[in-house]
Model the fold of this input.
Amino acid sequence: MKKTRNGNIRVRAACVTGPVHLGRGQPCQDYCRYSTRGANFVAVISDGAGSTKYGRIGAKIVCDTLVDLLADAPFKNIRQAVVNAIGTARDKLTFHRYNSSGNKKGIMAFAATVVGVVCHKGEGVFFHIGDGAALAFTSSDLSRYVASKPENGVFACETYFYTMDDWEDTLRFTPFKEAHTVMLMSDGLTNFSFDQDFNSIKPNFLLPINDFLCREKQQAKAVRALANTLNTTRAKQLNPDDKTFLWAKL
Done:
């Protein structure tokens, strides 16, 4: 596929394993993927439920499926394309070799959240199931933004997954226009990035990261520094979960 105007978008992303999973000898349950090669810029992160057996697999499958199917989907029908793509990911889990039931009842073993974005010619839309968060900034000082906030269930520790029977009821879309930067993050970073009521961001975390990534043009160096930031002793103390952060300069 030939390179499109999306090839000018700079993307930096890092996933780090939290102390909770390191202590259990488990790999990172988060997954992240993006594409700048199609008609649309697409990025998706997913947090596999640590309480399930194959959460990381569920996270990888939904990210890969969404990116593959949305990169060239017509933007005017993008919401339906997202619904169809998540349905395809669920179908893959239904017939996955680790799904011992061989039907939809078994896909909760692959439970994972979804936070994603599709951008096309100055327009964009977030799609979101569960916790994690996304931000689209429209002012140069990051004071104006559109947010897709976390959504929990009845209890604070309970969230929603694309593997649930009623997943379409929890799928949220948030449109935006003329953003210059987008950020996606898993649940391990939301308490760093938002005030407790999620009505405002914490500039002392997000602004320095944005400033550094804007300045640093070398991808390897930028990603290494981003991973180190997510993996500091202080970060581990504030939240022991896995952490994924994706930054894109549109």
Summary: Residues 5-249 form a domain with the Phosphatase 2c; domain 1 fold (CATH 3.60.40.10). The longest strand covers residues 10-16. The mean pLDDT is 93.
